[in-house]
Specification:
This protein is an alpha/beta fold. Among the domains are: 85-179, Dna Ligase, domain 1; 244-349, Nucleotidyltransferase, domain 5, CATH 3.30.420. It contains eleven helices and 15 strands. The protein has helices spanning 55-69, 97-107, 133-140, 182-194, 205-213, 255-266, 270-277, 287-315, 336-344, 366-372, 377-383; strands at residues 9-14, 18-28, 31-41, 47-48, 51-52, 75-80, 85-93, 119-131, 170-181, 198-204, 225-230, 235-241, 244-251, 323-327, 348-350. The strands form four sheets. Strands 3-2-1-6-10 form a five-stranded mixed beta sheet, with helices on both faces. Helix 6 packs across helix 7 and helix 6 (255-266) runs antiparallel to helix 8.
């Protein structure tokens, strides 16, 4: 079968605590209706700190989810994230598209902190920008890759680019360079294949988040906006500037720390902690103790988010984040949006991309779908993808 934009794809988001499945039908360009939605919990030991430790059990859980949702399509879109993903903005002289592809392939190694033979490489042309080479050289001094930026700072240009006669004052092409370690791609595709699916697209979580946010927001007109995905093992930050990615970072701290603290303090099982986080608990549990634990658990996350905002400012000429959109499992914690707003001094909203999708009440419980929207943000973003060759 030849794949096309009309080929039905099923979106699979494999997270640390659950697998999310979403399928959307496109009513017309940019408008979608929910056709399938499901989740399957994973045992704690299946995925640890973002690393799949028990792929057989994950594949079996995915098989069961596919069966439960009666999925007919065999073609899947999934995504990867974490320290195996590298994203960077670079500038190159203006050239033809064919020449650009060859130049990126030849010179990518100088930018990527992985062995070039171990990565899958891709890039996107963002457009052309006017550059003052003397100013660019001065401002780039000392901007070497460091621990704060981790491996994902698309706004940081490399200071070691070779200077040629072509690189004078004038226009240059701005490129978003992406490299992903093949091992993590193979890990995801193997699970999809074992579950009976055929991987059609392997995307990045950060791009899926942008696609999901676009269902209910015009990112190009919102000012500088931070999409923050509060996952179980990771917190993903994606700062959007003028509708494009300005800075991204994966922080290896997530909601699992909060979960473990609640389990330890109140001697409750994992499932009970989810209810506690959402404000549903018995009278023998004091609300002030719950608030204290949640605040303590997310303080480190907030400190790292603050550092990321400050670093973005140094890269962008002291520009500041104007709005935060929270999603992921952590966004379902009662009052956490207010905690983020108070600490970061930035307005915070809970992202609910499901509000931008048509949901037939005959097929789905709207209240349940709405409640689970935070957990399904990446899957929803993936489900908007259509197969193409670009």
């Amino acid at each position: 079968m030849f794949l096309s934009k009309k080929t039905q794809l099923v979106a699979i988001d494999i997270g640390s605590s659950s697998i999310k499945l979403v399928q959307l039908s496109e009513i017309k360009a940019g408008e979608f209706e929910l056709t399938h939605f499901g989740m399957m919990p994973l045992d704690d030991e299946c995925i640890v700190e973002g690393v799949i430790k028990q792929p057989e059990r994950v594949a079996e859980a995915l098989k069961n989810l596919i069966k439960a949702e009666k999925i007919q399509s065999r073609y899947a879109v999934s995504a990867v994230a974490g320290e195996a993903v590298f994203i960077k903005k670079i500038k190159v002289p203006v050239m033809l598209e064919g020449e650009l592809s060859e130049k990126i392939t030849q010179e990518a190694e100088q930018y990527i902190p992985f062995d070039i033979d171990d990565v899958a490489l891709d890039f996107q042309l963002l457009g052309t920008v006017k550059v003052d080479k003397a100013k660019e050289s001065d401002s780039s001094q000392g901007s070497e890759f460091n621990e704060e930026s981790q491996n994902n700072d698309p706004q940081q240009e490399d200071s070691d680019e070779e200077t040629s006669d072509e690189e004078t004052d004038g226009e240059m092409m701005e490129i978003l360079l992406v490299a992903v370690q093949r091992a993590i791609i193979d890990e995801r595709t193997d699970i999809l294949l074992e579950a009976g699916l055929k991987p059609a697209i392997i995307d990045l979580n950060v791009f899926a988040l942008m696609n999901a946010a676009q269902l209910t927001n015009d990112l190009s007109s919102m000012g500088i906006t931070a999409l923050i995905d509060l996952g179980d093992s990771y917190t993903h930050i994606n700062i959007i500037q003028d509708g494009t990615m300005g800075y991204t970072r994966d922080i290896p701290i997530g909601g699992a720390y909060c979960t473990n603290m609640l389990m330890s303090k109140f001697k409750v099982p994992f499932n009970q902690t989810l209810k506690i986080k959402r404000g549903n608990f018995s009278s023998d549990i004091k609300e002030e103790e719950v608030i204290k634990i949640i605040a303590q658990a997310y303080k480190k996350v907030l400190e790292e988010v603050q550092k990321s905002f400050e670093y973005f400012g140094t890269l962008s000429g002291n520009k500041k984040v104007e709005r935060i959109l929270l999603c992921g499992g952590g966004s379902m914690i009662r009052g956490l949006d207010g905690f983020f707003a108070d600490y970061l001094k930035v307005p915070v909203e809970i992202l609910n991309p499901m509000q931008g999708v048509k949901v037939n009440p005959k097929n789905f419980d709207n209240s349940l779908i709405d409640e689970m929207s935070g957990l399904s943000t990446v899957a929803l973003g993936l489900a908007t993808r259509r197969f193409d060759y670009t």
